[in-house]
Amino acid sequence: MKKLGTKKSAVAGVLAASLLIVSVLSGCGQTTAPQAQQQSASSSATPQMGGVLRTWKQYDPKSLDPTDCGDTDSYDIQQNIYDGLVMWDKSGKEIVPDLATALPTITNGGKTYTFQLRQGVTFQNGDPFTAADVVYSFNREASKSIASPGESYFSMIKGMDDVFAGKAATVSGVVEKGKYTVEFDLTQPTRTFLDVLAMPYAFIVDKKYTSALPNQGDLSLHPIGTGPFMFKEWKKGQVIKLVRNPHYFLKDAQGRQLPYMDGITWTLGYGNSVAYLKFKDKKQDFSLIPTSDYVSTLNDPNMKNDITSLVENDYFYIGGNIKKAPWNNKLVRQAMEYAIDKDALVKLYNKRIVPAWSILPPNMPGYQENPSGYKYDPAKAKELLKQAGYPNGLPGVHPMVYVKNDIRDVLAANIQAQLAAVGIKISLDGVPFPKYLDVVTKGQEDMVYGGWMQDYPDPDDFLNILFNSNQIPSNNNVGYSNPAVDKQLNQLASVTDLQKAIPGYQAVEKQILDDAAIVPLYHDKEAYLIQPWVHNSQLHPVYPYFYYWTMWIDQKAEQAATKG
Amino acid sequence: MEEEKKSVGLWGDAWRRLRKNPVAMAGLVIVALMTLMAVLAPVIAPHNPNHQYMNRGLTSMGAPVGPSSFFLLGTDQNGRDLLSRMIWGARISLTLGVVINSLNAVIGIFLGVISGYFGKFVDTLVMRLTDIVLAFPFLLLMIALLAVLSPGMESIIIGFVLVGWAQYARLVRGQVLSVKEMEYVQAARALGVSTPRIIFQHILPNVIAPIIALFALGVSWAIMGEATVSFLGLGIQAPTASWGTMIETGASWITSAPWLVIYPGILLLITVLGFNLLGDGLRDALDPHLRR
């Protein structure tokens, strides 16, 4: 809220495609979020030190290098290893200092941000943290050779794009003003600048350590940051282990050293169903609920208390690659808008989702239920295909790439049948998350079934990031390009008061949907399981995961339960 | 008279012995029924195998419904009729089994014959190649192959033929080695009969019997293999019904809707069993040493 009252453009994105959770957030001012109803976390108890959280992921994260942190799985792990200058508070409503001592002073008409940094902070290898690390980290993010998919989120910083394009050697807009003082100079006031600084792409790495790596890709395998947990090991496809960073700089309100837990272990490589069984067997502290077991879990007197559910600020969609035929034909894309019965998807997903006719999710400022007035009408879809010159349906079979898991397979099969019914034949290309990211962030797909989870509670994050043509292909995966929309999005990003920008965003959203850039499918209302001995397991309000460093484990309760 | 009885005899005798073997006949009946089911799938399947019954075929919370008079074996996770998918799945399984083994037989016979007949360097080359192929972990090869090619029917055929011919080649070579020393072959050679003619007229007809037995066993191998590969998500692609894919996608429902896995599993089991029994029976029936 208020502090964000800064300015302008910005973009950010975390590819959501992944699973779970997340609650919602607010945007400058408004907000939200249904916090998780945690039956398990009794806040009255005193946190205990020790214990290891045993959690899970179906797939390996794409990377543990912040410059390649564009997806929820990578973020979930990286947030423990690294810190940024600022972060979202637990409510998800405010940006608070992290490696900075306070929020920045803003001068020069909103174009200069000056941060004072914490002193005495060390990286996990003992190297001291200073302003030089901040400058280095932003230069690394901008580097042409690293080619971070997140660079464009920082375009408002002077010189960032020049370095990325190879036109300059260093980012002129990030300046070391003293050992513990850093100044950011922006090309224009940007409302979402602090939002973007709270993103994982802006995590700070150790200059001395990282610059000495023989290969920059090695940071992903041996990450070092200032965060609450230190990297221990990553066996691909098997396990990732983090352990407590005893020198972490944050303490809790009672002065106890954070984090409370000794470590976090993610086991990798199996799907929801196995995770669920392991949870039931008390061998895992966290799980999602497979579609096949949702009803029985709700009715299980023991397990129903372990469920936490929340509304996520995300949306899932399908889209054809507009750079390729036949998707470059607007009539074909509009036909798809009418072809999908979204209520069928809702049913197949145990009614755990809400049908989407908009891009912005229900808890996002500026949400409109159905801006373009589409509805399910297969006859109309066929008619539009006919007008497009395909009276007998589209020729060929179009592969649709998506992140494979138990529920997506079912939904994708339904989408396939629905499209076939109007004359659009697709094949299903379900792949692991990292492979999916490889394909879509290069714009190589024919069709995509994807998702987007918010980075920050501002319509800019969905509309500008996903549909501005300057985001092709890294985030604008479908290759949507409309100069009028670009112009409006750029201008809206510099409006400092979000409330004033909302009517503009609503008009843009309608235009994007009128152009049928994508077909919105649904917004998530996810439910997951957490063991009762895990406390403070509230979700990170902006990103989809936990605040691991304030979670704690009642080890006696755990031992009693697992023995029994 | 005596002469005629002998020449018809190989097949007639084999059939006679097969009929006397009840286990083999059970296999034959199963195979015949499965074939009939595959051929008549469009006629006997009660529903369109790909139609998703969003209301009737799913509970209000989106779970599959159990067996009823409308869906005799219940529905799957997408509200499709399970029985109809199983029936159509037979087409995939049997087609793959037959196509793969026909290709394997052709390649295997060709290589086996030249290896056995010409011997020496050719024999060494072909047999070492066979050893390599047979020693290679099949599943690993399939996974690697399907990672390169895109999953689907063609890829499965390519993969199964890459390894499947070796069994045929080895079997045929052994047969040829013994047959080519027979007097009638020596005689033909002495008379100056051309090599191709010796191979096609004198040797091949006399090594064909064990190949038939191997073919039946090979079909069961291919059906099981397709199910395995499809179970790993690398095989037949949606929405086409294949038993392996059905078992894979149904696996997570094993506690809440067990029919998704059990019925296709049983059908797969029976089919593979049928081909195995028939194959064993044929092997015995066509083996001259077991002739009584």
UniProtKB/TrEMBL annotation, chain A:
* Keyword Secreted attached: no
Q: Name one Pfam family in it.
A: SBP_bac_5
Q: Which residues form the Solute-binding protein family domain?
A: 94-471
Record keyword Transmembrane helix present: no
What are the recorded GO MF terms, alphabetically?
peptide transmembrane transporter activity
Q: Name one GO cellular component term.
A: ATP-binding cassette (ABC) transporter complex
* GO biological process terms, semicolon-separated: peptide transport
State the signal peptide span.
1-26
The record's keywords, sorted A to Z, are: Signal, Transport
Task: Give the UniProt family note.
Answer: Belongs to the bacterial solute-binding protein 5 family.
Q: What is this protein called?
A: Heme-binding protein A
Which species? Acididesulfobacillus acetoxydans
Automatic annotation (TrEMBL), chain B:
* Domain (ABC transmembrane type-1): residue spans on this chain: 90-279
Question: What broad class describes the main subcellular location of this protein?
Answer: membrane
Q: Specify whether Transmembrane helix is a keyword of the entry.
A: yes
According to its UniProt record, where is this protein located? Cell membrane
Name the GO cellular-component terms.
plasma membrane
Out of the domains of life, which is the source?
Bacteria
List the PROSITE patterns hit by this protein, alphabetically: ABC_TM1
Q: How does it sit in the membrane?
A: Multi-pass membrane protein
Biological process, per Gene Ontology: transmembrane transport
Q: Which residues cross the membrane?
A: 23-45, 57-74, 94-118, 138-163, 203-224, 261-282
Q: Which UniProt keywords apply?
A: Cell membrane, Membrane, Transmembrane, Transmembrane helix, Transport
Family statement: Belongs to the binding-protein-dependent transport system permease family.
Q: What is this protein called?
A: Dipeptide transport system permease protein DppC
Q: Which organism is it from?
A: Acididesulfobacillus acetoxydans
Q: What is the lineage of its organism?
A: Bacteria, Bacillati, Bacillota, Clostridia, Eubacteriales
